[in-house]
């Protein structure tokens, strides 16, 4: 990951629950140059285990020669609260005099993440954003922000996300947390606590991120006589180890709980009423094989966001298709922006 810049909020943040998170540090990256009209801003909200370095985890969509080229756009991405990539989270207090909170890290909601984005926006002096976008948990942040500050955004791009986190999604998150809680080292409150539980949690999550077809295509055994050492087993082990090497169990628990809080209708009368307040021209993208955020959820968004455009991605990669199928996403974006000019 490229070194991020840091914004410290000395007064911290008053969280939606009423708790005070103090102090707060926000890690962020910017790419490109703000133009004279200050209207070329693209703000990316990242998903669960990503970071502020969007060029590293969304190649094919962001970077030189792609849809969002820093030569043309001023791109902003901030690491979310609760993460372990520079922003204040369970394993980092943001203050050397205060020890990490680990399990005692307070509940941070999607709206609290948006409050941090708002603080950074003010710091950067941005008064309008051409495109706000995100997938999965990132899409949940983008949606909440577009409702909170409808006048800020000209375009909104939502990929593989929803208006409220489903019982199905919450159940998947709870299963992953149970795996982490079953690791006794999680209760040691150390930087390496809960790693074996995190490995098991990631293996569980992959079953919701990918699809039956994807596993059949990439993990099938060529030997019909195979009895042990299956590719699919090795794949789960490998992916679990990869996450343990780069992430933190306490952040994983915190961020999965944040995702569970997502409901744009909370305190706004209804979900439909909240979505009706969005003023940005909106593109909603669903993925045909997504079992975690199924198409019905994106179709709901498109029906209730005024004037929204709905696009359906044909992919065997499941939920992870929003990170992989960048050629399809680019085609959707090109049509969307052309239609916006009509």
TrEMBL record:
Gene Ontology cellular-component terms listed: cytoplasm
Keywords from the named record: Acyltransferase, Amino-acid biosynthesis, Cytoplasm, Methionine biosynthesis, Transferase
Gene Ontology molecular function: homoserine O-acetyltransferase activity
Magnesium as UniProt keyword: no
Reactions accelerated catalytically: L-homoserine + acetyl-CoA = O-acetyl-L-homoserine + CoA
Protein's pathway: Amino-acid biosynthesis; L-methionine biosynthesis via de novo pathway; O-acetyl-L-homoserine from L-homoserine: step 1/1
SUPFAM superfamilies in the record: alpha/beta-Hydrolases
UniProt-annotated location(s): Cytoplasm
Entry keyword Iron: no
Binding residues for substrate: 202, 320
Active site: 136, 290, 319
GO biological process, one term: methionine biosynthetic process
Domain of life the protein comes from: Bacteria
EC identifiers of the protein: 2.3.1.31
AB hydrolase-1 domain ranges (all copies): 41-323
Gene3D superfamilies reported for this sequence: alpha/beta hydrolase (3.40.50.1820)
UniProt family annotation: Belongs to the AB hydrolase superfamily. MetX family.
Function: Transfers an acetyl group from acetyl-CoA to L-homoserine, forming acetyl-L-homoserine.
Quaternary context: Homodimer.
Protein name stated in the entry: Homoserine O-acetyltransferase
Gene: metX
């Amino acid at each position: 990951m490229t070194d991020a810049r840091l914004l410290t909020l000395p007064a911290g943040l008053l969280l939606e629950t009423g708790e005070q998170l103090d102090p707060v540090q926000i890690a962020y990256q910017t790419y490109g140059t703000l133009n004279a009209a200050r209207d070329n801003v693209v703000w990316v909200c990242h998903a669960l285990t990503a970071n502020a370095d969007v060029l590293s985890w969304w190649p094919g969509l962001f970077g030189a020669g792609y849809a969002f080229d820093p030569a043309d756009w001023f791109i902003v991405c901030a690491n979310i609260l609760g993460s372990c990539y520079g922003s204040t989270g369970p394993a980092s207090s943001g203050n050397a005099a205060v020890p990490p909170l680990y399990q005692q890290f307070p509940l941070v909601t999607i709206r609290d993440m948006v409050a941090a984005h708002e603080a950074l926006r003010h710091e950067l002096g941005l008064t309008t954003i051409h495109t706000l976008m995100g997938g999965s948990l990132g899409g949940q942040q983008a949606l909440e922000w577009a409702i909170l500050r409808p006048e800020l955004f000209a375009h909104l791009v939502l990929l593989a996300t929803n208006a409220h986190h489903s019982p199905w999604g919450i159940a998947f998150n709870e299963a992953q947390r149970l795996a982490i809680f079953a690791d006794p080292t999680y209760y040691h409150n150390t930087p390496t606590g809960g790693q074996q539980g995190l490995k098991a949690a990631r293996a569980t999550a992959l079953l919701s991120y990918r699809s039956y077809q994807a596993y059949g295509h990439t993990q099938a055994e060529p030997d019909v006589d195979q009895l042990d050492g299956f590719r699919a087993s090795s794949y789960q082990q490998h992916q679990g180890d990869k996450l343990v090497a780069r992430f933190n169990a306490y952040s994983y628990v915190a961020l999965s709980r944040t995702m569970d809080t997502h409901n744009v209708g909370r305190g706004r009368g209804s979900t439909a009423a909240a979505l009706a307040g969005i003023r940005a021209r909106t593109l909603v993208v669903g993925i045909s094989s997504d079992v975690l955020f199924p198409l019905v959820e994106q179709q709901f968004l498109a029906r209730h966001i005024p004037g929204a455009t709905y696009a359906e991605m044909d992919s065997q990669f499941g939920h992870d298709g929003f990170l992989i199928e960048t050629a399809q996403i680019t085609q959707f974006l090109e049509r969307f922006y052309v239609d916006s000019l009509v």
